[in-house]
């Protein structure tokens, strides 16, 4: 497999397809079997979808995952099964919609919350099984609230009093659909997401992403250049690099103090060897990347 198709690829996902659909399309176009996405987007959503190709798939959990920035549109007056307009409508509010001041005040209340109950239809696991699978079976899902941070929840009115555009900045694990739901509950009229677009994840911006239909040649960020959430350390001796690559702990580099607990490990030529944990003066292999020609 050519190393040209190994690394990080930023795509701008179109509406109406799943993140897995994008992965399958990239597999077909590149011939690379090992492709995975970092950060699922619902079919309704568009925007930034980071993909990892080849050996880079092993680094997915070390990618920066926050803050995340989204824009979109919320519709008030409806409650749906999925907390967006693609789900079954459970209730339509018959009364007058709240005035703008009340909407903005409620948005401030939602922003200050430090916990959030995920949508019932989500990939979050409940009792060891994906929540959406339980819902499909007709079971009632009672997901637990999880810690979240909503740094920004800016709403702007539109010509339609039922619809507001928004931009939010949130921590990893925050569901924008749940923000719309909670806003509607706080107002007593219900709310759901009509449009959703992901603009940014940490250092990754949709402005640097290419369209899913674009020519992907030259758009893959090489392994050594992928921004990770952990610092890098260098093993400048080939013998130590070889031992680490074989899964053997080596003496931790002493160049920096204090030493990072977890780090990306580079070899003498700057090649990525994997991820290591530093403990008691030793660098222990945590993720070891095989050679580029190794079988998946």
Q: How many distinct folded domains? A: 3
What is the N-to-C order of secondary-structure elements (H for helix, E for strand)? Answer: EHEEEEEHEEEHEEEHEEEEHEEEE
Q: What would you report as the Rg, rounded to the nearest angstrom? A: 22 Å
SS-derived structural category: alpha+beta
The percentage of residues in β strands lies in: 25-35%
Tally of alpha and pi helices:
5
- For this structure, what is the CATH class of the largest domain? Alpha Beta
Q: From the 3D structure, determine the CATH topology of the largest domain.
A: Pseudouridine synthase
- In CATH, the architecture of the largest domain is 2-Layer Sandwich
Distance between the termini: 11 Å
What is the 3D shape? elongated
Main beta-sheet annotation: 9 strands, mixed
Helix percent band: 10-25%
Low-confidence stretches: none
Mean pLDDT: 91
Say how many strands there are: 20
Which superfamily, in CATH terms, is the homologous superfamily of the largest domain? Answer: Pseudouridine synthase
How would you describe this protein?
The protein has 296 residues and is an alpha+beta fold. The protein folds into three domains: 3-65 and 203-225, Pseudouridine synthase (2-Layer Sandwich); 68-201, Pseudouridine synthase (2-Layer Sandwich); 232-288, Roll (Archaeosine Trna-guanine Transglycosylase, Chain: A, domain 4), CATH 2.30.130. It is built from five helices and 20 strands. The protein has helices at 19-30, 100-112, 131-136, 176-187, 238-245; strands at residues 7-13, 35-37, 46-53, 68-76, 78-80, 89-92, 115-116, 125-126, 129-130, 146-147, 150-157, 163-170, 191-201, 204-205, 210-211, 232-234, 250-251, 262-266, 272-279, 282-288. The strands form five sheets. Strands 1, 2, 3, 4, 11, 12, 13, 14 and 15 form a nine-stranded mixed β-sheet that branches. A five-stranded mixed β-sheet has the order 16-18-19-20-17. It has a two-stranded antiparallel sheet with strand order 5-6. β2 (35-37) and β3 form a beta hairpin. α2 crosses α4. The model has no long low-confidence stretch (mean pLDDT 91).
């Amino acid at each position: 497999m050519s190393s040209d198709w190994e690394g990080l690829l930023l795509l701008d996902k179109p509406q109406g397809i799943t993140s897995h659909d994008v992965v399958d399309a990239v597999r077909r176009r590149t011939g690379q079997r090992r492709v995975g996405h970092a950060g699922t987007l619902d079919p309704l959503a568009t925007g930034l979808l980071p993909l990892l190709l080849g050996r880079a798939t092993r680094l997915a959990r070390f990618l920066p995952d926050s803050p995340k920035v989204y824009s979109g549109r919320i519709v008030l007056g409806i409650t749906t099964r999925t907390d967006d307009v693609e789900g079954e409508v459970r209730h339509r509010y018959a009364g007058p919609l709240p005035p703008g001041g009340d909407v903005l005040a409620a948005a401030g209340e939602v922003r200050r919350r430090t916990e959030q109950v995920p949508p019932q239809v989500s990939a979050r696991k409940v009792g060891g099984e994906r929540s959406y699978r339980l819902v499909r079976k007709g079971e009632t899902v009672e997901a637990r609230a999880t810690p979240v941070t909503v740094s920004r929840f800016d709403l702007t009115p539109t010509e339609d009093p039922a619809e507001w555009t928004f931009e939010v900045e949130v921590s990893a694990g925050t569901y924008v659909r749940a923000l719309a739901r909670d806003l509607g509950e706080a107002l007593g009229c219900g709310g759901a997401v009509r449009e959703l677009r992901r603009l940014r994840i940490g250092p990754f911006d949709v402005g640097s992403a290419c369209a899913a239909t674009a020519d992907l040649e030259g758009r893959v960020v090489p392994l050594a250049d992928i921004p990770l959430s952990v610092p890098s350390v260098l093993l400048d001796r080939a013998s130590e690099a070889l031992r680490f690559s074989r899964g053997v702990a080596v003496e931790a580099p002493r160049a920096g103090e204090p030493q990072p607990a977890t780090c990306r490990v580079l070899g003498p030529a700057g090649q990525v060897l994997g991820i290591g944990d530093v403990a008691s003066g030793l660098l222990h292999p945590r993720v070891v990347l095989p050679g580029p020609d190794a079988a998946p």
